[in-house]
Amino acid sequence: MPDSIKRAVDVLKAGGLVAIPTETVYGLAADANNVLAINKIFSSKGRPAGHPLIVHIAQPEPNVANDQQARVTAWQEILCQWSRDVSPEALILADQFWPGPLTMILPKAKNVLSEVTGGQETVGVRSPQHPMAQQLLKAFGGGLAAPSANRFGRISPTTAEHVREEFPDDEVLVLDGGPCDVGIESTIVDLTRLDTHGPVILRPGAITQVMIDQALNRNSDDGHAPKTPSIMSGSNLSAPRVSGSLSAHYAPKTKLVLYDAKDTASIFSELNSSSDLKRFAWVHFPRDSSAGIPSLKNVAKELLLPVESKALARELYALLRQLDTLNVDCIYFEKLPEGVEWDAVRDRLGRASVGSGM
Ligand code: TXA
Ligand code: MG
Fold first, then answer.
1. Using CA atoms, how far apart are residues 31 and 15, in angstroms rounded to an integer?
2. Residue 138 scores a pLDDT above 60
3. Is 186 in the pocket of ligand 1 (CB under 6 A)?
4. Residue 151 Cβ < 6 Å to ligand 1
5. CA atoms within a 13 Å half-sphere pointing along the CA-CB vector of 185
6. CB 31 within 8 A of CB 15
7. Structure confidence at residue 243 (pLDDT)
8. Which atom of ligand 1 is nearest to the CA of 26?
9. Whose CA is nearest to atom 10 of ligand 1?
10. More confident: 173 or 269
11. What is the DSSP letter of 254?
12. Could you tell which of 54, 97, 347 is best to mutate to test the pocket of ligand 1, judged by most ligand atoms within 8 Å of the CB?
């Protein structure tokens, strides 16, 4: 076992905090069964008490990998430690998508700390895909509660360097696993209201509604199984508390304005004729032609977006951090396309815009 993992296990056993790489974003991890350690997460992040944490768990031993029944049994045994009622649907999704960027909300087991669940009767569980996270979880031998390793309301970290920027003075051991591959937080699916609501997506991510529907054989066209409903905003009254569902979240300090590409010319003309001397960053997709678009004065930085949604998800948070260092007055950011493959990254960018400039 590498020394860094050994050291991390020691820190966790002693009730300390370790920042861990996952495939989505870096997490700020603590022993999920240690109240004092969990309290440290809240105080370090400045996160209000009552916001539940995701419990991260190790995947089953590789000897079951080629036997589906054995895999499912192994997931069942692992999940029973955290949930009092592990549904067949939860096992199907675990088998299909774990380790991976999916968090399941399940009825909590009795022993799960209320500090972890935010006092709710449910618990969020996920087995992350990053090899270093799995190695640590296995060596630690228990669950790790881990929110994203950023200060409350700010941009999630996708590199070890970002984590150090967030917690420069705190006692956080940072495991460097390189840049995160997915780049935005896991999909959260609520499986606690299956009878009445089906699986409900609380936060969109790399595992899409269509993928979940397919795995559970819930075909929207077959007449009896309703499609997985999707709740993407915090306005739904029956949704449990999900801090990521606050509309202002993941936000840069610089004001970020989303604009429609078709309005570029009129917006630029207006900005150019304003007497207010402001400096802008301009972020947009590559275009075939710039005919008819006046050049914007005072552009301190122009950045081109990747045309593929997965690539933008991977880069988005680093891009927002970079934009925040430019000291511009405002970021003009082209709206993302409408297609479902952009849902998760559009969701994060929308929240970043709402919470920006504060
Ligand atoms: O990809 C991820 O999920 C990352 C990595 C580190 O795993 N973690 C993450 O944690 O994004 P955090 O705390 O920043 O966001 C987790 C979200 C929060 O909005 C929290 O409210 C919600 O999950 N959550 C956790 N447990 C829940 C529960 N029992 N019911 C409803 N929402 C829950
Ligand atoms: Mg977070």
1. 7
2. yes
3. yes
4. no
5. 26
6. yes
7. 47
8. 6
9. 147
10. 173
11. S
12. 54
CB neighbours (10 Å) of residue 325?
A: 10
pLDDT for the residue numbered 236: 43
| Interval 258-265 mean pLDDT | 92
Specify the DSSP class assigned to residue 263. Answer: G
* pLDDT score of 240 more than 50: no
Alpha helices by DSSP H, listed for the chain, are 3-13, 35-45, 68-80, 88-97, 114-117, 131-140, 160-166, 194-197, 209-215, 264-273, 309-324, 343-355
Query: Is any ligand 1 atom within 6 A of the Cβ of residue 120?
Result: yes
Q: Is the CB of residue 347 below 6 angstroms from any atom belonging to ligand 1? A: no
User: What is the rounded distance in angstroms from the CA atom of residue 218 to the CA atom of residue 232?
Assistant: 20
Neighbouring residues of 155: CB distance < 8 A, sequence distance ≥ 6: 162, 250, 251, 252, 317, 320, 321, 324, 352
Global pTM reads 0.93
Predicted local confidence at residue 278, as pLDDT: 81
Q: Is 249 within 8 Å of 153 (Cβ atoms)?
A: yes
Compute the chain's Rg from CA coordinates. 21
What pLDDT is attached to residue 272?
85
Which residue has the least CA distance to atom 13 on ligand 1?
147
Question: What CA–CA distance (Å, rounded) separates 211 from 287?
Answer: 31
Omega before 229 cis (within 30°)? no
